[in-house]
Write a structure and sequence with these properties.
This protein has 342 residues and is an alpha+beta fold. It has a domain at 61-260: Muramoyl-pentapeptide Carboxypeptidase, domain 2 (2-Layer Sandwich), CATH 3.30.1380. The protein has helices spanning 2-7, 9-18, 31-36, 84-100, 146-151, 172-182, 194-203, 253-257, 284-290, 312-315; strands spanning 47-51, 54-58, 61-62, 66-67, 70-72, 81-82, 106-108, 131-135, 187-192, 214-216, 223-228. The strands form four sheets. The protein has a four-stranded mixed sheet. Helix 4 (84-100) crosses helix 6 (172-182). The radius of gyration is 20 Å and the shape is globular.
């Protein structure tokens, strides 16, 4: 079946872009369209390339759709791919949460696209296979159908009027779950809604070191976002700056008193950031787009389970690599005009 069999839709798109005389080039096409057209991961050794919000993924692995302590949600989005070390980390968090946090099992949301890169909608990060969303909804005691996984309501735990926690929807096990994830040594950051961080600060007690990793960020009111550190020895992965010291609980007022205030009358109109093009990504990402599909790669994590990565994959140094889906629900929460780093 030749080259077209290797890439399917993405091969047709890339071939069209390389044609001369059409006025369209690879450099003029938003990277989100190129990576969004990729249905399967690439060949090559696993590598997280670039920064979390500006990079790609080589040799990604699909999270198995079902495990003893997890299920993968939103299979139609085809975003359940990650670096094998991240897959191992998430599976370990799911086991620890079941054993220590009283959580039956995890529902995994978006991770990365098959080859990472910018997404057509929903996320600025999740590009290098080291980010994943975990829902604050416990796994049911049965296996969900694909249709249920795509349509199941995922309620917010935040009151949209006060922007603080809705105590009626909060469970102590949620705090235990987030703490379990934050205490993983290889976790870099965890993003939660400021109202969730506020609650965690109140219930943490004396053991507060883990709160340093938990960073407030709007948009995380029905799930939390786990970010893994660059692997030891990785030269292709750009690490994030340190979170510094302290638990961050003394800096939450800004999120409620300042972040969502209307702009001053003389403020410049908000402009949506321009799309990212291939020239803004690491050069290795162009090669990732051209690589053949990985042997036996699945189209969706729900299509066919794949083997779990060996435990050694977690800590091993990483080799160096020379129609749009609907956006995830926001729970009706307002968003600030800009979101500071963290």
């Amino acid at each position: 079946m030749g080259q077209m069999a290797k890439h399917g839709r993405s091969a047709a798109l890339l071939a069209a872009l390389f044609l001369t005389g059409t006025g369209t080039t690879l450099a003029q096409t938003p990277a989100k369209e190129l990576f969004g057209a990729e249905a399967r991961p690439s060949e090559g050794p696993p590598a997280a390339i670039g920064f979390y919000s500006r990079g790609c993924l080589q040799g990604g692995m699909a999270m198995p759709a079902d495990g003893p302590t997890w299920q993968v949600m939103k299979p139609s989005r085809n975003r359940a791919f990650a670096h094998p070390a991240m897959i191992a980390l998430l599976q370990r968090i799911s086991r620890d949460a079941a054993a220590e946090a009283g959580w039956r099992g995890l529902l995994f949301g978006d991770m990365a696209q098959p080859r990472g890169g910018p997404m057509r909608d929903g996320h600025a990060s999740h590009q290098i296979g080291l980010d994943a969303d975990i829902y604050l909804t416990e796994m049911p005691n049965r296996r969900l159908s694909n249709a249920e996984r795509d349509s199941m309501p995922l309620p917010s735990v935040i009151d949209p009027k006060t922007r603080h926690l809705d105590e009626r929807r909060w469970r102590p096990q949620m705090a235990a779950l987030i703490k379990t994830a934050a205490e993983e040594p290889q976790v870099e950051r965890i993003f939660v809604h400021p109202g969730i961080k506020e609650k965690l600060c109140k219930v943490a007690g004396r053991d507060r070191a883990w709160l340093n990793k938990v960073r407030p960020m709007y948009g995380h009111d029905y799930h939390f976002h786990v970010r893994m550190k660059c692997l030891p020895g990785s030269k292709s992965c750009e690490p994030q700056e340190s979170t510094g010291k302290g638990d961050g609980c003394d800096k939450l007022d800004w999120w409620f008193d300042v972040a969502l205030q209307p702009p001053p009358p003389n403020a410049k109109p908000y402009k949506k950031p321009p799309p990212i093009f291939m020239t803004a990504l690491p050069k290795a990402c162009a090669a990732v787009l051209k690589e053949p599909d990985a042997p036996g790669a699945t189209v969706s994590a729900a299509a066919r389970p794949v083997a779990s990565p060996p435990a050694a994959a977690y800590a091993a140094p990483e080799p160096v690599a020379a129609p749009p889906t609907a956006a995830a629900p926001s729970g009706g929460m307002p968003m600030p005009r800009f979101r500071p780093g963290g």
